[in-house]
């Protein structure tokens, strides 16, 4: 049985807005990942199939390993077509905000979304959402926004209407936000949902392969380089750090998404519970933090880099040099000794 996770009150608010409006825009966060694109396309297919006029708008481009999803070609990239995207946001009657909790996470689109007269519905699983939507469906205890979309469609009474395209997108988001069901994935409901998605005809092995067996030769060699040359281990803190410069990424012809998953790599090492990945991204440093157990990656990110995220997967942006970012991290690390389960 599908859980009653989303309250009946929220479901009827969404139902009412859907009865009233059909010009819909779906937005999600910068550098969209599998859950951002998966949840957006899942909802997109459902709303299109229900007769609405829908556009998914993302702030910037998404990785190639998501481009096989049906509907991916129709996603509008704000950075490429800002005027057109802005017009759609202005004219929308309803905006769904998926997989982010604060307007800042949609970058330059934020001011337009906030200024739009459209009714706004937030569907998200990041802690501490700010108050920028009319309807808020926020469940930090759920491992992916895509799972929330499955729940929503079912609770609206439309499981029958859910297409295979929508089911594939949901599975992709659930899979990528749990590292292919290796973390944040102990809820029985996840496996109930997977069973239901399989009934829609999805090929979960093919989806895994499309997403994870998709390395270019350059990307795979960069991975080897990073592991052998760029990983610093701090055994006394059960922590590891990977850094990567612009020049190094250019050397391996790195494209958007090519460093996806690198932040998780050090957690494969026995006893490492905190992994920090600092990557030059143009003029800023992209921060990716991963942890195991109760170590709060999001707290660390907020304190050091004004970022945020989940307990075990967090991120941020730092405007300064890579060396400065490393210094900030190394200075802070000892303060976290007790949270790392180490005696002071
Ligand atoms: P990733 O390392 O995959 O980019 O991000 C992991 C998680 O950290 C995301 O799901 C998101 O919750 C959070 N995150 C990433 N970048 C930022 C950021 O710049 N600011 C905030 N507040 N959270 C971020
Ligand atoms: Mn997510």
Task: From the structure above, extract its key features.
Diaminopimelate Epimerase, Chain A, domain 1; six-stranded parallel beta sheet; binds guanosine-5'-monophosphate; 2 domains; 18% strand; alpha/beta; 12 strands; globular; binds manganese (II) ion; inorganic pyrophosphatase (n-terminal core)
Descriptive account of the structure:
This protein folds into 2 domains: 8-212, inorganic pyrophosphatase (n-terminal core) (Alpha-Beta Complex), CATH 3.90.1640; 218-336, Diaminopimelate Epimerase, Chain A, domain 1 (Roll), CATH 3.10.310.30. It is 38% helix and 18% strand. The mean pLDDT is 97. The chain is built from 12 helices and 12 strands. The longest helix has 16 residues, at 34-49. By secondary structure, the chain is of the alpha/beta class. The strands form 2 sheets. Strands 3-2-1-4-5-6 form a 6-stranded parallel β-sheet, with helices on both faces. It has helices at residues 8-20, 34-49, 82-91, 110-115, 145-155, 164-176, 188-199, 204-212, 217-229, 246-251, 297-305, 322-332; strands at residues 23-28, 53-58, 76-77, 94-98, 119-124, 135-138, 231-234, 239-244, 274-281, 284-291, 308-309, 313-318. Helix 2 packs parallel to helix 5 and helix 5 runs antiparallel to helix 6 (164-176). It is globular and about 55 Å long. A hairpin with a 3-residue loop joins strand 11 (308-309) and strand 12 (313-318). The structure holds guanosine-5'-monophosphate (5GP) and manganese (II) ion (MN).
């Amino acid at each position: 049985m599908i859980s009653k996770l989303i309250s009946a009150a929220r479901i009827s608010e969404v139902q009412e807005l859907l009865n009233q409006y059909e010009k819909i825009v779906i937005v999600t966060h910068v550098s969209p990942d599998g859950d951002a694109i998966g949840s957006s396309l899942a909802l997109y297919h459902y709303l299109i199939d229900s007769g609405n006029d829908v556009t998914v708008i993302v702030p910037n481009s998404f990785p190639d390993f998501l481009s096989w999803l049906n509907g991916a070609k129709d996603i509008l990239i704000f950075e490429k077509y800002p005027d057109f995207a802005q017009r759609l946001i202005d004219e929308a009657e309803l905006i769904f905000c998926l997989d982010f909790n604060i307007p800042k996470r949609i970058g330059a689109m934020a001011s337009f979304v906030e200024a739009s007269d459209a009714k706004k519905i937030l569907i998200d699983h990041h802690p501490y959402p700010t108050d920028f939507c009319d309807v808020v469906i926020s469940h930090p205890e759920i491992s992916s926004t895509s799972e929330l979309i499955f729940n929503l469609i079912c609770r609206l009474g439309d499981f029958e209407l859910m297409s295979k395209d929508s089911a594939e997108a949901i599975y992709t988001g659930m899979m990528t936000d749990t590292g292919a069901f290796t973390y944040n994935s102990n809820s029985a409901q996840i496996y109930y949902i997977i069973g239901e998605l399989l009934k829609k005809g999805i090929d979960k092995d093919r989806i895994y392969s499309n997403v994870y067996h998709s390395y270019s030769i350059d990307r795979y060699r960069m991975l080897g380089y990073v592991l052998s040359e760029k990983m610093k281990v701090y055994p006394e803190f059960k922590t590891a750090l990977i850094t990567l410069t612009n020049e190094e990424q250019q050397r391996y012809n790195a494209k958007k998404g090519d460093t996806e998953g690198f932040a998780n790599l050090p957690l494969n090492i026995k006893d490492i519970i905190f992994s920090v990945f600092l990557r030059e991204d143009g003029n800023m440093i992209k921060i990716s933090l991963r942890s195991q157990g109760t170590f709060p990656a999001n707290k660390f990110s907020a304190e050091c880099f004004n970022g945020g995220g989940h307990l075990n997967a967090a991120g941020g942006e730092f405007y300064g040099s890579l060396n400065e970012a490393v210094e900030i991290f190394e200075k802070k690390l000892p303060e976290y000794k007790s949270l790392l389960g180490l005696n002071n």
